[in-house]
């Protein structure tokens, strides 16, 4: 009933702006606040770098080439794999909490901006999108850098330690002494994981931003 | 009192027994206490009152930024309480333009991007929005400042950008909350004249909350609010008389 009444008076339902607009605005926001963005992304960067390092190391240490080296005595430590999973999980949780914190800060910083946008006709869903997209983009960028530094760095360290022969071959997959690490899928997994964690981390901050009454935001003096 | 059919064309905003209560430390505080006001289409109306009088609260109710505890706000004879979130967003985007005391431009966007933002929300094509944005900035005298960021503009220039932004979707109402509050006398006067010019040229209804007495000169009506109630309403002819007496000249 209300819709027909409203429509008779020329009031319609506002459509949501396209996703591309949210991407464009988030991209600009990241570029302009580069310092802050780097700090936000560094949380996921460190988490993913740690994940990649642990994965490379365990591949190297369990490889036949390394195991057959004279300085390696005794069999592989079976508890190591479990310990590594825990370490990586904790590292990723810490990284995610860091992103939640950064995004909450970003929302507080932009209280007035969000309120203004709501006055200008931004829908709650659009505000949510802005923050999710921004966090997701930062997470993906941070993960790419983290995976490169993590895999690259620890591969170089392994090479320095055990000699170049740990690399059985270079190609689409780096073969680490008989343990092939398919490079592209490994990086892809890291990036997808980092992206998903970043988006998850932004849900609560984005929700808080969207739920803020427009009038309250305008009265805030920050 | 006008009947529904007549007022549909004559009144753009009507409020009925508007009450707003806040809770301050468990104590109810009545910011608005039964405000009834009919605002005509194309009117330039100033809402005057000291801070804490409830004028900002009243203003937020009209703009759909806050919900009343009791009473109704009609925009174009539609009860605002009946609108859903999407319709309210449409109203804020297309029918109402906002101007703030602190300008509230988005600091990371250029003047042009700020002006086109409401058009983005309205779903206007980018090219069209850009052209219109430039036109609006030229109109408010900032044709050469299109690519400047807010922090590269003076207060008066920022408020001009805000006026251009408020006009972006050709609203029928402009809500100006203390538009001259952060400006010096001369700049404040310029902004008031610009608002008056937009009001005359485009027939946009201007509702301004203020305690700037310069506003009285250009207002069609002045509503004085005190302690959440309308104290008195002055019509244009009364104002002209009074201003004439004080300044010894015709207000225009």
Any descriptors?
heterodimer, A: mainly alpha, three-stranded antiparallel β-sheet, 9 helices, 3 strands, 5% strand, B: alpha/beta, Rossmann fold, six-stranded mixed β-sheet, four-stranded antiparallel β-sheet, 37% helix, globular
Provide the fold topology.
The complex is a heterodimer of chains A (222) and B (252).
Chain A: H1 2-8, H2 19-32, H3 34-61, H4 64-67, H5 78-109, H6 111-119, H7 124-162, E1 167-169, E2 173-176, E3 179-182, H8 183-211, H9 214-219
Antiparallel strand pairs in A: 1-2, 2-3
Helix pairs in contact in A: 2-7, 3-5, 3-7, 3-8, 5-8, 7-8
Chain B: H1 4-10, E1 11-24, E2 27-40, E3 44-48, H2 55-62, E4 70-75, E5 78-79, H3 85-95, E6 96-99, H4 111-122, H5 126-139, H6 155-166, E7 173-177, H7 185-202, E8 205-210, E9 221-226, E10 229-235, H8 236-247
Parallel strand pairs in B: 3-8, 3-9, 6-7, 7-8
Antiparallel strand pairs in B: 1-2, 1-4, 4-5, 9-10
Helix pairs in contact in B: 4-5, 4-6, 5-6, 6-7
Give a description of the structure:
- The complex is a heterodimer of chains A (222) and B (252).
- Chain A has 222 residues and is mostly helical.
- Helices cover 76% and strands 5% of the residues of chain A.
- Chain A has helices at 2-8, 19-32, 34-61, 64-67, 78-109, 111-119, 124-162, 183-211, 214-219, and strands at residues 167-169, 173-176, 179-182.
- In chain A, helix 3 (34-61) packs antiparallel against helix 5 (78-109) and helix 7 (124-162) packs antiparallel against helix 8 (183-211).
- Chain A is elongated.
- Chain B is an alpha/beta fold and 252 residues long.
- In chain B, strand 7 (173-177), helix 7 (185-202) and strand 8 (205-210) form a beta-alpha-beta unit.
- Residues 1-8 and 248-252 of chain B have low confidence and may be disordered.
- Chain A binds chain B through residues 2-3, 5-6, 9-15, 17, 21, 28-29, 32-33, 112-113, 115-124, 126, 213-215, 218, and chain B through 60, 63, 65-66, 75-79, 82-87, 89-95, 98, 100, 102, 104-109, 117-118, 120-123, 165, 169, 177.
